[in-house]
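Long-time lurker, first post. I've been practising inverse folding by hand and with some scripts of my own, and I keep getting stuck on stretches where the structure tokens seem ambiguous. Below is the full token string for one chain I'm working on. Before anyone asks, I'm not after the true native sequence, just a reasonable design that respects the backbone. If someone could post their per-position residues I'd love to compare against what I wrote down in my notebook.
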């Protein structure tokens, strides 16, 4: 969606800039005194770049204990379907669960057989109610940019309005840490499934296939119970960092209000290369100090993001060649998202605002 958006926003930005230029023709022409800076057709600007309104997130802390995540810590069947229990699965088979039974099921331990009643198998899902859907942090950052403006022409009867093409390369690092502790409970749901009396289930562990045939188990639980034990705690330590290499290309217009001061507007295509690394660690302490479990992971990833930008700058000429530049830019590169070894991290670049301060050289 973002890639398609950038395609039509590029000509739109150009149209807006030209419309702004046309509106200026309604004012009486003011011919400025010629200077080297007005005659220059090229300008290079180096800027410090402050990134704002950028948010980083880690989704669904707690792994399999978070009810928003799949059961079984991401385990999958041979066919690639997700487990719907921590210690097994009961899914629809190729027959559509004809007769209210399925051969597409599996379980891990022999203790699950006849645990609640005869001719049945228990399957369990353990969660920690109340865990958040995400942990987020604002990530204001400081980077740098080098831009090059190439002038295509001047409208002398439009207050010396200049227009051309702008290209820029920028860099910005991002880093955030999310640390937290959540007091919660341990909820264990037990679903009991029946099998035909007089038959014997396959020994554990067992994983039935989608296509069958295989040992048949009832496709719906005949009983379901949930036990809740308070006093658990989840400790979360997440770290994310990324380098964003950006590129901009689009038309610009510049209105020299005086011999020294001008306003510069541009917009067009933006491209970003995200080089990211993340690591995370989560420790769940069980109620009553009864031990706990620690899970951790991490990884690295590189992705390309497409979008658009719109910016406005004020330029003040200190001399015929040197000037200072201050501006603000809005940029939409969408949202970067990746699974780093079991936890999904996101960097929201869809509403980025950049404030820039720089020095320019005209020639």
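-- Answer (accepted) --
I ran through it position by position. Result:
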């Amino acid at each position: 969606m973002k890639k398609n958006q950038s395609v039509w926003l590029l000509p739109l930005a150009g149209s807006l800039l030209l419309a702004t230029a046309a509106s200026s023709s309604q004012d009486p022409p003011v011919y400025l005194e010629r200077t080297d800076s007005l005659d220059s057709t090229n300008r290079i600007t180096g800027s410090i770049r402050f990134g704002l309104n950028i948010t980083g997130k880690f989704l669904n802390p707690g792994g399999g204990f978070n009810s928003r995540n799949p059961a079984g810590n991401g385990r999958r069947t041979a066919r690639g379907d997700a487990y719907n229990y921590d210690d097994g699965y009961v899914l629809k088979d190729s027959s559509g669960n004809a007769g209210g039974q399925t051969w597409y099921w599996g379980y891990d331990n022999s203790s699950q057989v006849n645990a609640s009643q005869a001719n049945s198998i228990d399957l369990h899902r353990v969660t920690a109610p109340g865990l958040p859907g995400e942990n987020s942090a604002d990530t204001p950052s400081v980077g740098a940019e080098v831009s090059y403006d190439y002038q295509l022409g001047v409208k002398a009867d439009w207050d010396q309005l200049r227009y051309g093409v702008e290209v820029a390369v920028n860099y910005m690092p991002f880093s955030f840490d999310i640390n937290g502790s959540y007091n919660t409970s341990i909820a264990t749901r037990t679903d009991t499934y029946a099998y035909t009396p007089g038959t014997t289930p396959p020994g554990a562990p067992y994983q039935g296939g989608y296509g069958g045939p295989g040992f048949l188990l009832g496709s719906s639980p005949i009983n379901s119970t949930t036990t809740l034990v308070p006093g658990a705690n989840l400790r979360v330590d997440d770290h994310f960092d990324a380098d964003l290499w950006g590129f901009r290309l689009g038309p610009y217009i510049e209105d020299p209000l005086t011999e020294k001061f001008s306003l510069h507007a541009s917009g067009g295509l933006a491209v970003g290369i995200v080089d990211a690394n993340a690591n995370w660690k989560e420790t769940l302490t069980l109620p009553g100090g009864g031990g706990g479990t620690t899970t951790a992971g991490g990884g690295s990833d590189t992705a390309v993001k497409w979008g658009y930008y719109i910016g406005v700058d004020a330029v003040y000429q200190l001399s015929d060649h040197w000037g200072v530049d201050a501006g603000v830019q809005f940029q939409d590169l969408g949202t970067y998202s990746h699974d780093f070894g079991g936890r999904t991290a996101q960097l929201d670049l869809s509403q980025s605002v950049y404030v820039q301060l720089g020095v320019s050289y005209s020639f």
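A couple of notes from the structure itself: Residues 26 and 158 are 8 Å apart (CA to CA). The chain has one domain: 2-362. Happy to go over any region you disagree with.
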